[in-house]
Amino acid sequence: MKKVSTGGIVLLLLLFAACQTETDTIVSSDQLISDVPDTDRLDSLIGEVQSVLIGNLTSAIEKEGFESAVLFCSSKAQNLTDSMSEVVGARISRVSAQNRNEKNAPDAYEKEVLLAFQKGKESGNMPLSQINQTQHTYYKPILIGMPVCLKCHGNEEDRDPAAYAVIKEYYPHDKAIEYSLGDFRGMWVLDYEGLLD
Question: Global pTM?
Answer without folding.
Answer: 0.77
